[in-house]
Specification:
Helix content: 40-55%
Strand order of the largest sheet: 2-3-1-4-5
Distance between the termini: 37 Å
Number of domains: 1
Shape: globular
Oligomer: single chain
Number of helices: 10
Structural class: alpha/beta
Strand content: 5-15%
CATH class: Alpha Beta
């Protein structure tokens, strides 16, 4: 998708996201959106695009590090529960409890029994969340082996993106088939009517981001509250000349160097 077309469509969708945001806050809705997919699928980029002009007090991103020693002794879902949405919030999970469905068993970070327990409990856990009033949306961003390799090569040669390439990424690159089998099992056992997996074609990053936003708009009930979007009548600005304060010139302050002076 061409950048100009993408930007034009994104601007339209951002107005709809603003309406959704206002509805969520006003009605106290609880929304959680999960982003999963292979490394370099575009999870982080999709989240950044969604949040570009949104209110950070309503939207929140959760990207948890590996569990602590204490968290490893807890119920597996416990570390995620405390990050779920309260009323009037939208939480975007950059990876989620589904680490245990794909990454952990393939990489050997959990036992077979822990994996099987998770696969049995995840749908029950999500049923409780949905029954409590949470709107749960689960995206799996699909990327082909060829496209993933191209993105890995880009990261490997671009110092600005080198931080995105971890040892786990390189190991996962060797385990494409194992990850695919684990993903298929996750789809079969953890996609339910009340919390289905939604698969996004992520090979075209721009198109994928637009499709994700459209899918969110389709699944979170929102409305247009005209009053909330009426132009704001700003009161007259007081004249600085009428006050008894003399503002110091910038040159008198601890002004940083102008690196772009003509």
């Amino acid at each position: 998708m061409k950048k100009k077309t993408f930007e034009a469509e994104l601007e339209v969708l951002e107005f709809e996201l603003a309406k959704l945001q206002e509805t969520v806050q006003r009605k106290g809705l609880k929304v959680a959106v999960i982003f999963e997919g292979r490394d370099a699928a575009g999870k982080g980029g999709a989240i950044k695009t969604i949040l570009r002009r949104m209110n950070a007090r309503i939207w929140r991103v959760v990207a948890l590090p590996k569990p602590s020693d204490r968290e490893r002794t807890q119920w597996y879902f416990e570390r995620y529960v405390k990050h779920l949405s309260a009323g009037g919030e939208i939480v975007l999970f950059d990876r989620s409890w589904y680490n245990r469905a794909v990454i952990e068993p393939v990489m050997g970070f959990c036992t077979e029994q822990e994996h099987e327990t998770f696969m049995r409990e995840a749908p029950m856990f999500e049923k409780m969340l949905v029954d409590s009033g949470l709107i749960l949306i689960k995206f799996w961003i699909h990327v082909s082996a060829e496209e993933q390799e191209a993105r890995f090569q880009d990261r490997a040669h671009d110092p600005r993106k080198r931080w995105k390439l971890s040892p786990i990424d390189l190991k996962a690159r060797e385990l494409w088939i194992e990850f695919t089998k684990a993903r298929d099992k996750m789809f079969a056992q953890c996609s339910k009517d009340y919390s289905p997996w939604l698969v996004v074609d992520g090979n075209d990053k721009r198109k994928a981001r637009l499709n994700i936003i459209r899918a969110i708009l389709d699944r979170v009930p929102y409305e247009f509250n005209g009053e909330a979007f009426d132009p704001v009548a700003l009161p007259p600005r007081p004249s600085i000349d009428d006050c008894d304060y003399d503002e110091p010139a910038l040159a008198e302050l601890n002004l940083i160097k102008d690196y772009y002076a003509d």
